[in-house]
Automatic annotation (TrEMBL):
Source species: Nocardioides pocheonensis
Lineage: Bacteria, Bacillati, Actinomycetota, Actinomycetes, Propionibacteriales
Pfam families: HHH_8 (PF14716), PHP (PF02811)
Residue ranges of every copy of the Polymerase/histidinol phosphatase N-terminal domain listed in the record: 110-197
Protein name (record): PHP domain-containing protein
UniProt-listed CDD domains: PHP_PolX (cd07436)
Length: 358
C-alpha cells in the first residue's frame, strides 16, 4: 500500500516559490526556475477560489505563464497535498549546502550584496526582500550595478534615483503588511559600484552619499599589471564612500562562466589600506567565486581587516549562499565581531556612514 500523501496547507504560491528557491540555492539554470516564479506571479493576485476552480476544471493552463508542470504543482497544492515536484526537491536540494559554517551563519543579521532585475538579477526587488525576511535577515542591502557595467544593465543616475524611491515604497509596504514584525527587517539602499581603471568609483558623489552601504568591485581589466592594479584598488579603498571591497581577486573557480585566474595586486598593501580606511573585505560566498582565496583571506585576517560575508545573490534562492562563506570563515577561526554583517543595523549604518563622512 502506498504511503498517504502528506497534507500541505501553504497553498500554491508558497509551493511554487519554495520550488524556485530550492532550485536557485542549488544553482539550477535560470530557465528552469523562471517558469515557477512566473507561475507564482500569475496566481498571486487571483482570488484563491478562481485558482481552485481552474485547478478542478483543468483550465489553469489558459492563464499566461502557467504550463504543464506548474499547473500540476498548483493543482496538488490546491488539493492540500504536498506537490510531488516539491517533495522530490526537498529531498534532493533541501539539505545543508556545505559542512560547517552554521555558527557564523547563525550570527549573521543581514547581507550586504544582492542584485535585482533592475540590473542583472532575475527577480524583482520585493521578492528579494521577502526571501531575505524568510531567511531571518534583519536587513538586506540592494546593490545593483553602476552605469559603466552595461552588460549587467548598470543603473544610471536617473534609474538609481528611481530605485531609491522603490526601496522606500517596498519598506513602507512591508511594514504596513506586518511582514517585518518578527525581525524589524529593513531593505537598505546600496550599490555595487565599479572600480574604474584609475580607482575612482563609477557613480556621482551625490548619489553615493544618498546610499546606506557601498560595495566597490573591479569588473573590468582584471589582467591589469600588478602595480597598476594595486594603485587602482588602494585608490578605491581610500575613497571615503567605499564600505566594502567586493570579490577582490575577480577569480572564477567553477561553473558555467568558466575559470578565470585571480588578478594580481599587492594584497598586503590593499588590505592595510582597508584597515586604515575602515573598509571591510568581502568574503564573496558564491561557489564559483570563493573570493578571496584562502591564502589571501588568511592574510586579511592577520592584517586586522573587517569582513563582510555576502551572498552576491542574483536570485532569491541564492541568498542562501552565505553559508559557504561562513564555513570558510569558521575554518580560519575568524572572530564573528569582525564580520560587519553580524552587527545590528544601527551599528552597521553608523559604521557605513562614518566612512562617507570622513
Ligand atoms: Zn561583482
Ligand atoms: Zn554583485
Amino acid at each position: 500500500m502506498a504511503a498517504p500523501t502528506p497534507a500541505y496547507a501553504d497553498g500554491p504560491v508558497a509551493a511554487l516559490r519554495r520550488i524556485a528557491f530550492l532550485l536557485e540555492r542549488t544553482r539550477a539554470e535560470t530557465y528552469k526556475v523562471k517558469a515557477f516564479r512566473a507561475a507564482a506571479a500569475t496566481i498571486l493576485p487571483l482570488d484563491p477560489e478562481e485558482v481552485a476552480t481552474r485547478a478542478r476544471e483543468g483550465t489553469l493552463r489558459e492563464l499566461a505563464g502557467i504550463g504543464a508542470s506548474t499547473a500540476e504543482v498548483i493543482a496538488q497544492a490546491v488539493e492540500g497535498r504536498v506537490p510531488a515536484r516539491l517533495a522530490r526537491l526537498e529531498e534532493e536540494a533541501g539539505g545543508a549546502l556545505v559542512d560547517g559554517g552554521d555558527g557564523i551563519r547563525g550570527a549573521l543579521r543581514g547581507d550586504l550584496h544582492s542584485h535585482s532585475d533592475w540590473s542583472d538579477g532575475g527577480s524583482p526587488i520585493e521578492e528579494m526582500a521577502f526571501t531575505a525576511i524568510e531567511l531571518g535577515h534583519e536587513y538586506l542591502v540592494l546593490t545593483d550595478h553602476s552605469p559603466r557595467l552595461t552588460v549587467a544593465n548598470g543603473l544610471s543616475v536617473a534609474r538609481l534615483r528611481q530605485q531609491l524611491e522603490v526601496v522606500e515604497a517596498v519598506n513602507a509596504h512591508l511594514v504596513a503588511a506586518g511582514s517585518t514584525a518578527g525581525t524589524g527587517f529593513r531593505l537598505l539602499k546600496g550599490i555595487e559600484v565599479d572600480i574604474l581603471d584609475d580607482g575612482s568609483l563609477d557613480q556621482t558623489d551625490e548619489m553615493l552619499s544618498a546610499l546606506d552601504v557601498r560595495v566597490a568591485s573591479v569588473h573590468s581589466k582584471l589582467a591589469m599589471d600588478k602595480d597598476a592594479m594595486t594603485r587602482r584598488m588602494v585608490n578605491a579603498v581610500a575613497n571615503p564612500f567605499t564600505n566594502v571591497l567586493g570579490h577582490c581577486t575577480g577569480r572564477l573557480v567553477t561553473g558555467n562562466r568558466g575559470i578565470r585566474a585571480q588578478s594580481q595586486f599587492d594584497a598586503r598593501r590593499v588590505f592595510e589600506a582597508c584597515v586604515e580606511h575602515d573598509v571591510a573585505v568581502e568574503i564573496n560566498a558564491r561557489p564559483e567565486r570563493r573570493d578571496p582565496p584562502t591564502r589571501l583571506l588568511q592574510l586579511a585576517i592577520d592584517v586586522g581587516c573587517l569582513f563582510s560575508i555576502d551572498s552576491d545573490a542574483h536570485a532569491p534562492g541564492q541568498l542562501d549562499f552565505q553559508v559557504y562563506g561562513c564555513a570558510r570563515a569558521e575554518e580560519l577561526g575568524l572572530d564573528p565581531d569582525r564580520i560587519v554583517n553580524t552587527w545590528p543595523a544601527d551599528r552597521l549604518l553608523s559604521w557605513a556612514s562614518g566612512g562617507a563622512g570622513r
